[in-house]
Write a structure and sequence with these properties.
21% strand, alpha/beta, globular, 6 helices, 33% helix
Length: 177
C-alpha cells in the first residue's frame, strides 16, 4: 500500500501559553518527529495540515500561533494544506493530493484528539481510506471541563481502533523497515 503521513494542526498556538500546552507535548513531538524520520527513510510523503480560523486569534492566518510548530522536522518538499474546519478533507485539496499521488493508506498524528482528528479520521474512512493507522502517542489534546486529556485520548482511541484506524506504535514502524 502506498502511504502518506498526515500531521494535523501541530501549530505554535499549542506551545505559546503554558496553560494551553498539549498534554505530554514533549513525547508527542518526539514521536511525531520519529514518524517523520521514518516516513522520509521510506519515501512516504509527509503532509502537514494547518488549521486557519479568522475568528480565532490563535489560529488566524499569519498570527504567531497559526504557524506550524518550529520543533517539527519539516522540509520544503512537504505538503502543507490549510483547512478552515475540523475536517482536513472538507473544502481542501487533501483528497485531490492523495488521489494524484495514488495514496491508499493514511498514517495519522496531531492535535486535537477530540476535534480535528475525531473529524478527519472518520472522514478519511468515508472517503474510501479503510486501512489507516493512528500512530500511538503521536496525538494529543488539552484537558476539557469534563475530562482530562489522557481520558479524552483513551476514549477516542477505544472508539477508532479497528473501526476507522488501527493503532500502532512508532516502534512498530521502525522495526518494519
Amino acid at each position: 500500500m502506498k502511504q502518506a503521513l498526515i500531521i494535523i494542526d501541530i501549530q505554535e498556538a499549542f506551545f505559546l501559553d503554558s496553560q494551553q500546552n498539549l498534554w505530554n507535548s514533549e513525547a508527542i513531538i518526539k514521536n511525531i518527529n520519529a514518524s517523520i524520520t521514518w516516513a522520509r527513510r521510506n519515501e512516504v510523503p509527509v503532509i502537514f495540515i494547518q488549521h486557519t480560523d479568522a475568528d480565532d486569534v490563535d489560529f488566524a492566518l499569519g498570527q504567531p500561533g497559526w504557524e506550524l510548530y518550529h520543533g517539527l522536522l519539516r522540509q520544503a518538499e512537504d505538503q502543507v494544506i490549510q483547512k478552515t474546519t475540523w475536517d482536513a478533507f472538507y473544502q481542501t485539496e487533501l483528497a485531490a493530493y492523495l488521489q494524484a499521488h495514488h495514496i491508499d493508506q493514511l498514517l495519522f498524528a496531531g492535535a486535537q484528539t477530540e476535534f480535528c482528528l475525531d473529524t478527519t479520521i472518520p472522514s478519511a474512512f468515508s472517503h474510501g481510506y479503510h486501512h489507516n493507522i493512528l500512530i500511538e502517542d503521536a496525538h494529543s489534546t488539552l484537558d476539557s471541563n469534563v475530562l482530562a486529556a489522557p481520558q479524552i485520548i483513551r476514549h477516542h482511541e477505544s472508539i477508532w481502533h479497528n473501526r476507522f484506524v488501527r493503532i500502532q506504535s512508532i516502534g512498530g514502524f521502525q522495526h518494519a523497515d
